[in-house]
Amino acid sequence: MRSTSSKLRNALALVGFIVITFCAPLMSIGSMPGAWYAALNKPTWNPPSWVFGPAWTLLYTLMAVAAWLVWKRVGFSQPLAFYFVQLALNAAWTPIFFGAHQLGWALVEIILMWIMILLTLLSFRRVTPTAGWLFVPYLAWVSFASFLNLTLWRLNPA
Question: Each residue of 21-37: pLDDT tens digit?
Fold first, then answer.
């Protein structure tokens, strides 16, 4: 009986981490790309818009699983505090960039987010290497996104 309740608790926790993680992009509804973004000067290597949905879906899923693995080992502790800070920064970038059209401030914000992602990755890796590895694609994507943000800011001075 105890094993069944433990499995149910773990499954519900995984669902909880998935829901919480996927709330980050929901916070930016209404700040999505539109005519303003379409009119920006973009580098030739700017990804097509259809790439972002599948990429972020995969990344948010990997992030949630990583957080869940850490929670299973150490509960709510410093690594998960880092996780939630980087998740809040993740949620803040879209309204700054797409909503407020503040490419420079979005660049500052994404650099802070990148730092928190790295701290989260390193703290997760200390708890369970698998969780750290699950964060590597996210760090790589945000590294690319940071460079894209910088390039867009330089190509489109205010």
Answer: 988 887 766 666 678 88
Using left for φ > 0, alpha for ψ between -120 and 50, and beta otherwise, residue 29 falls in beta
With 0-12 CB in 10 A as exposed, 13-18 as middle and 19+ as buried, what is 132? buried
pTM confidence score: 0.90
**32: phi > 0 → left, psi -120 to 50 → alpha, else beta; which?**
beta
Per domain, the residue ranges of the chain are 2-155
Q: What is the pLDDT of residues 80-139, one digit of tens each?
A: 999 999 999 999 999 999 889 999 999 999 999 999 999 999 999 999 999 999 999 999
Helix axes 103-127, 52-74, angle to 10 degrees: 40
Q: Are 47 and 37 in contact (CB under 8 A)?
A: no
Tell me which fold the domain 2-155 belongs to: Ferritin (1.20.1260)
With vertex at residue 87, the alpha carbon angle to CA 47 and CA 66, rounded to the nearest 5 degrees, is 90
* Cα–Cα dist 115/86, whole Å: 8
